[in-house]
Amino acid sequence: MDLSYIINHLGEDRDEYMGAAVPPIFQTSNFVFSNVTDMRAALIREMDQPFYTRGHNPTVATLRQKLAALEGSEECLVFSSGSAAIAAGLMSALQAGDHVVCVRKPYSWTNKLLTQLLPRFGVETTFVDGSDPEEYRRAIRPNTKLLYLESPNSLTFELQDIEAVVAIAKAHGLLTAIDNSFATPLNQQPILMGVDMVFHSASKYIGGHSDVVAGVMCCSRERAEIVFRGEYMTLGSIISPNDAWLLLRGLRTLPLRMERVAKTTPQVVAFLEAHPAVETVYYPFSPSHPQHELAMRQMKQPTGQFSIALRSDSVAEVDAFCDKLTYFMLAASWGGYESLAFPMSALVTSANYSGSVVPWNVVRFYAGLEDAEVLIEDLRQALEAIPVKAHR
Q1: pLDDT digits (tens, 9 = 90+) for 199-240
Q2: Co-location of 243 and 276 in the same domain
Q3: How are beta strands 124-128 and 99-103 bridged, if at all?
Q4: Residue in 52, 150, 72 with CA at minimum distance from that of residue 107
Q5: 124 has which bridge partners?
Q6: Helix count (H) and strand count (E) of the chain?
Q7: 167 and 305 assigned to the same domain
Q8: Domain that holds residue 164
Q9: Angle ∠(107,75,168) on CA atoms, nearest 5
Q10: Which residues contact 263 (CB under 8 A, 6 or more apart)?
Q11: CA distance 172 to 379
């Protein structure tokens, strides 16, 4: 199936929908049956047939088909958030006494799941840098069950060699899981590299309009059935039909949006790399990045997220820089039409902040759909907030 067919046609029965170009929203909690035989059949196959919207809804089903096809997986489940998808997937694979090896600096809520929630139920985690696949191998214990990747990982965007880590996992009979939100399924397909579970925060690029929160898990049919019968139905962290429809809308323009950020973001990064107030730029697609070759091998084109470390003496200077930004709005997340900045300085007084993980002078950016020249000028004027002494 080609990309255009997946995005514009797969799972859309226009004859059944009275010729509607856009799939309807099945805004219903319940489905009725003309007889008990039909009702029984639907209940038996609740993952694939409408019975109650917590389990199956036609609008959500269309979205699931498209996302599975984009990732190259047999199945897909859609959740109310990315953290819900990750939690359900990992919980389905782990039990008391198991051990996980995870890349250092994962998404903050993944980190909380592994360091605060799962330990309450007897699951341990070892964190590794992950830039060398052998670190995963060395961390494996007799009770290790799963290797977790996030490539590139959050905030400073270090990569893991996905195929190499998968090979290690298979040699030891272990499961693998990855957060693929940074790349999107258009730029990186870990399922085709042998990963067992692929997660996305669909709030990001897949949604694309900053108006829906959702999560995705792509996997085998067997794994999806395990999660569906267990964590998915039991915990009930499902997506609404309306939000599923919004994600279907977002998918229509995903290729165009990814092409746009692939063109403009490297221009913005090149400006920052040359600016004396910038100490470090974290962007895997920059030729100066130590893992540039791996990034170009694993991902098809650049994306819109990058971070910088400012040459600054104080949190106040970083705050002043961010406050001067106009086109880059201060917010979390990424992947919408708008450009965003998220400063680590905002977390200095927060319980979630650890300066030993990501320094306070780091600011994460997402380049939205504006022209590169506009974004560069916005950064140029904001960088005036960093004193001249810091430029030396």
Answers
A1: 999 999 999 999 999 999 999 999 999 999 999 999 999 999
A2: no
A3: parallel
A4: 150
A5: 99
A6: 14, 12
A7: no
A8: 3-250
A9: 55
A10: 372
A11: 48
Mean pLDDT estimate for the chain = 94
More confident residue, 19 or 49: 49
- The tokens for 374 are 């506009």
Residue 306 has φ and ψ, to the nearest 5°, of: -155, 160
Please answer whether residues 180 and 190 qualify as being in contact, where contact means their C-beta atoms are separated by less than 8 angstroms. Answer: yes
CA 90 centroid distance within chain: 15
How far apart, in Å, are the Cα atoms of 385 and each of 275, 307, 326?
13, 18, 13
Where residue 329 falls (left for φ over 0; alpha for ψ -120 to 50; beta otherwise) is beta
Instruction: Give the separation between CA 277 and CA 148, rounded to whole angstroms.
Output: 35
CA nearest neighbour of 336 among 248, 222, 209, 241: 209
Question: Alpha helices of the chain — where are they, by DSSP H?
Answer: 3-8, 36-44, 58-71, 82-93, 108-112, 134-139, 162-171, 184-187, 221-227, 233-235, 241-273, 292-298, 315-324, 372-382
Q: State the CATH number of the domain containing residue 315.
A: 3.90.1150.10
Give the pTM.
Answer: 0.93
Question: Buried b vs exposed e over 364-392: b needs ≥16 C-beta within 10 Å?
Answer: bbbbbbbebeebbebbeebbebbeeebee
Structure token pair of residue 305: 């997220």
How many C-beta neighbours within 10 Å does residue 169 have?
24
Domain tally for the chain? 2
From CA 130, how far away is CA 256, in angstroms rounded? 32
**Do 177 and 163 sit in the same domain of this protein?**
yes
Contact present, 221 and 73 (Cβ < 8 Å): no
Q: Are residues 237 and 146 in the same domain?
A: yes
CB 186, CB 300: distance < 8 Å: yes
Question: What distances in angstroms separate CA 192 from CA 69, 96, 173, 187, one per listed residue?
Answer: 12, 30, 18, 12
Q: What are phi and psi of 278, to 5 degrees?
A: -105, 120
User: Is 298 found in the same domain as 211?
Assistant: no
- pLDDT tier for residue 388 given thresholds of 50, 70 and 90: low
